[in-house]
Write a structure and sequence with these properties.
By secondary structure, the chain is of the alpha+beta class. A hairpin with a 4-residue loop joins strand 5 and strand 6. It is globular and about 60 Å long.
Length: 367
Amino acid sequence: MKVPGDQFIQWRADLFELCRLQRLTAFVLAVRAAFSLITLFSLFMLFANAFWVEIAAARDNRDGRDPEAVEWLERISKASRDLLYTGVFVHQTLDNSSTSRVTHMLDRQGVEHEKIEALDGPLREIIRRNEEMFCYQPDLKTVRLDRRATGRFFPSLITGNPKAVAENYRVKMGPVERIAGYDCQWIFLEPKDEMRYAQKLCAEMGTGLLLRARTYNDRNQMLEQFMFTQLDVSGSVAKLSLKSRYEQSPGWQRDYSVKSQTADTDTGWIVKNLPAGFKKVMEMVRSLTGQTQPISHLVFSDGLSHVSVFAEPSAVSGKVTASGASDDAPTTFAIRTVADYQVTVMGEVPLATVQLIADGVSRRGRQ
């Protein structure tokens, strides 16, 4: 038989146990409630993210940008810089074609090395180290120093930010084709305005290296094509093969027509009202043989198409205005007089583009 003191002790123990169970129950309920809130919040964020992804995808589709296709542009751009490759490619225009061999590597210091050899026509070699180029002309025994931005070189055709390029084209996925023994993914770039040509790019499925590129006008006529006929991406390229065979030849002259091969020079010329997407990528001064005055040279690009602007003292009095297109290539030109200078604009763009750019050329501080 328990005494009242024992009953009190037991009652207090039962009360403590009841309070502990109540606290435990409350804690469990609180945890369950918090877990439910977290779950609801997670579900909300999941649906919200999905919603915004759909919105972004819809916006990209409305702007003509297929995210997968833009990723392919990034792969193409990266592959042409990072990969070690050698191959033979054909360059075709409406009436002409030429064959060249290209060898490319990126060394451990992050320097690009490239050699391009003409396989038909006059002997020519181009040796490139990053943006600096050495153009060997054996018939003249002359090596000319120049800069990469002055030309368009396959397969490194995408020279700007791929996402910025996609701002001015409707980028879409195309079919898969077999080229030079490799599976190749087509990417179609339709211009959003009349200031650039349509482009079709085909990249190797495994590496992203550009295997074929085509340029079309607004009538869907092919103006230009680059295409590999032989390609080796196995990595078996010796650095010695990237040197010119004429590098140690005696009696060669160096043409320093470009005053600075690595840095821009302020020429005093500007271009107003550039077409959408075009930005200045180079500005320099050239000193040409037979010319008493230097020539200013500016290059503008949308990351895929390039336009050069040349300004030189005019040898003709009065205003000169002319424009036209090359007979066998996508190159167009426009010529006009600005004060006492003749301005020539040319590039692989529609005629309306060079005319618009030519109209916007002026000396800084003058109209």
